[in-house]
Design goal:
- With 221 residues, the chain is α/β, with parallel strands linked by helices.
- Helix content is 37%, strand content 24%.
- The chain contains 7 helices and 8 strands.
- The chain has an 8-stranded mixed β-sheet with strand order 1-2-4-3-5-6-7-8, with helices on both faces.
- The longest helix is centred in the middle third of the chain and has 17 residues.
- The chain is globular and about 40 Å long.
- The two termini are 24 Å apart.
Length: 221
């Protein structure tokens, strides 16, 4: 088992360092890179819960802050999807070169605005990304052109009481041309705070990643 704090260079000439936590169970079958939503962080209890479930299923996880503390105080920056995407791609490159993860399949788990960044990054990376999962995400913010280019199988999960976001996810689902699925969790609001709803999210995510990341390194290159 590997569990360590990492610092990933990003920005022009690596001028910015992104802090994250890399955790790899023994014989990991892949690694899932988390892109959290606006106003959240890699310490989000919801994403950390999902990450634990994924590790129990044999997947590694990298939870990372895509913005510096200073940047995260700017509301506009939180919704700068191209910036978040560039940072996510920097973290992806790091995983692709790090000895402990370079042979592993890579997946993205995005929440809120992080889902849009995950899908833009997946469009850029093509089949180098094994699978994408969005939790209560805003995949519509990725833009139709990027959604059309996503090759990675994509699962969109939305709360049944999150009316506006359901509609936005339905629009994004129609724009995706890859293997895809939209799951609505009954009785859940945007943050999946209702009893049992986050557990359902984690279960669906683990199944989706397990389906497309079945063996060490499968589908990652």
């Amino acid at each position: 088992m590997i569990s360590r704090l990492v610092h990933i260079p990003a920005g022009p000439s690596g001028t910015i360092s992104l802090e994250g936590m890399l955790e790899l169970p023994d014989n990991a079958t892949g690694v899932v890179l988390f892109a959290h939503g606006s106003g959240s962080s890699r310490l989000s209890p919801r994403n950390n819960y999902v990450a634990r479930v994924l590790r129990d299923a044999g997947l590694g996880t990298l939870l990372i802050d895509l913005l510096t503390l200073h940047e995260d105080t700017d509301y506009a920056t939180r919704f700068d999807i191209p910036l978040l995407t560039r940072r996510l791609l920097a973290a992806t490159r790091w995983l692709q070169s790090e000895p402990a993860t370079l042979s592993l399949a890579i997946g993205y788990f995005g929440a809120s605005t992080g889902a849009a960044a995950a899908l833009q990054a997946a469009a850029e990376e093509g089949r180098k990304i094994a699978a994408v999962v969005s939790r209560g995400g805003r995949p519509d913010l990725a833009g139709e052109e990027a959604l059309n280019r996503v090759a990675a199988p994509t699962l969109l999960i939305v709360g049944g009481f999150d009316d506006v976001v359901i509609g936005l996810n339905q629009e994004a689902h129609r724009a995706l041309r890859c293997e895809k699925e939209l799951i609505v969790i009954p009785g859940a609001t945007h943050l999946f705070e209702e009893p049992g709803t986050l557990e359902q999210v984690a279960k669906h995510a683990a199944h989706w990643f397990g389906k497309f990341m079945p063996r060490s390194g499968a589908g990652s290159r």
